[in-house]
Amino acid sequence: MSQATGAVADGDRGGSQRLRLLLLANPHASTTDDAVQRRVTTALCRRHAVEAVRTGHKGHAIELSRAAAAEGFDAVVALGGDGTINEAANGLVGTRTALAPLPGGATNVYCRMLGLPSDLAAACAMLGGREHHVVRADVGRVNDRWFTFAAGVGLDASAVERVDRRPRIKARWGKWFFASMGLSVFLGDYVTDPVRMEVETAESRHEAVTVLMQNGSAYTYFGERPIVLLPHGGLFSGDLGGVALRRAKVRDLAPVLWRALSARRPVTGHPAVRALETGDGLVVRTRDERLLPIQVDGDNIGRHSEARFAVAPGALRVLRGGTQPPPGVTR
């Protein structure tokens, strides 16, 4: 990669400024291929200087983003799914180089939370236009890995493990494959012998079988429907929120799912679910010597004996095209 000039300033609204961008394209993302990468590069090159690189292995986007920040690029454009965006963010947290996500995956949770169009061409047009905003977004951390919108310990992480073993089916069936794996894990493993964990906060200590933390306004999406576990201020609130699943019983499955998908009644109103009003400093430990499966932004990061959560308010600079800042920006 060639040398670049300094980064854009916080709150900058663009104009005639020509930015130096590194485009990271994940060729394995569900809606990204060589033709898509060329179209995106062409669209961005009309106003900005763009270097395009394809990711080649797990963790590659972290390495490339970290190098781009060291070389002074204005922003890293992450073209892929939420896993690609997560890796790019992990290379950019705390640096002057901004993250510019584009919707190149199946769900595109982070892009939705930033108010970006789900259509890739429209999102490229925004980023390649005259106007842009640079804002500081919060990022959560579990152990040594940052996450942009959500992280889970237990049931959903186990489902992610299984989904990742079959990337072709994942790409084809998306949310339906994940839902089927989640149901399979719940009925096959968690109902009979769930991983036992202890959740410790500054105020309490209690048992659980799954912990789900959200940094954004929703935990994830199922199709167009947001799944909100706990009302939360979103990417710019300065805190994390989440829930702990106290038990894994078949009788709880339907009512908890109904609450999560309908939003008519809060998930935390069900007796099997405990609200975790703050996630900063929360620690989850194994109680039965089995390692805990952990996922960040839908990306499996393996099994660990404990999960330590923290939040870094405003630690990630985010570049978003358009005349309006992202939803929820207060600083």
Folded structure, characterized:
This protein has nine helices and 18 strands. The chain is of the alpha+beta class. The chain has two domains: 20-137 and 314-321, Probable inorganic polyphosphate/atp-NAD kinase, domain 1 (Rossmann fold, 3-Layer(aba) Sandwich); 145-313, Tumour Suppressor Smad4, CATH 2.60.200.40. A hairpin with a 4-residue loop joins strand 8 and strand 9. The strands form four sheets. It has a six-stranded antiparallel sheet. A six-stranded antiparallel sheet has the order 14-13-10-7-16-17. Residues 2-6 have low confidence and may be disordered.
SS field, number of helical segments = 9
CA-CA gap between termini: 33 Å
Largest sheet: 6 strands, antiparallel
- Mind telling me the C-alpha Rg? 19 Å
What percent strand?
25-35%
Query: Can you name the CATH architecture of the largest domain?
Result: Sandwich
Summarize the structure.
With 331 residues, the chain is α+β, with helices and mostly antiparallel strands.
Features:
31% strand, 331 residues, six-stranded antiparallel β-sheet, 18 strands, NAD/diacylglycerol_kinase_sf, globular, 28% helix, ATP-NAD_kinase_N, disordered N terminus, ATP-dependent diacylglycerol kinase activity, alpha+beta, Lipid_Phosphate_FormReg, Rossmann fold, DAGKc domain-containing protein
Topology:
Elements (H helix, E strand, L loop, with lengths): L19 E6 L8 H12 L3 E6 L5 H11 L4 E6 L1 H11 L5 E6 L5 H5 L6 H8 L4 E11 L2 E3 L2 E4 L1 H10 L2 H7 L1 H16 L6 E4 L4 E4 L1 E5 L5 E3 L2 E3 L13 E5 L4 H13 L10 E4 L6 E4 L5 E5 L2 E6 L1 E16 L10
Parallel strand pairs: 1-2, 1-3, 3-4
Antiparallel strand pairs: 5-6, 5-18, 7-10, 7-16, 8-9, 8-15, 10-13, 11-12, 13-14, 15-18, 16-17
Helix pairs in contact: 2-3, 6-8
Pfam families: DAGK_cat
Family: Belongs to the diacylglycerol/lipid kinase family.
InterPro entries: ATP-NAD_kinase_N, Diacylglycerol_kinase_cat_dom, Lipid_Phosphate_FormReg, NAD/diacylglycerol_kinase_sf
